[in-house]
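Incident log, structure service

09:12 report received: a user says their structure output differs between two submissions of the same chain.
09:20 pulled the input from the user's history:
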Amino acid sequence: GSEFDTVLILIPEQISPVVTRQLLYTGITRSRKKVVIFGSMPMIRQAVQTSVEPRSNLQAVLDRE
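09:34 re-ran on a clean worker, output below:
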């Protein structure tokens, strides 16, 4: 994936379903040198505790056959 010297991550003030552990991980791992996270600690903790379950249509495809 893409890499950048500095990555800025902005965490919203209200709960959002798109702010997840995976989003933070992706942002952090795109940085070569520095990561800056803007947001309140409660919202950052909420993001770290929120995980997205991967969805797959594989079972539906297998069930059709």
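09:41 both user submissions now match this output. Likely a transient worker issue. Closing.
09:42 reviewer note: The chain has a mean pLDDT of 92. The chain has one domain: 4-64.
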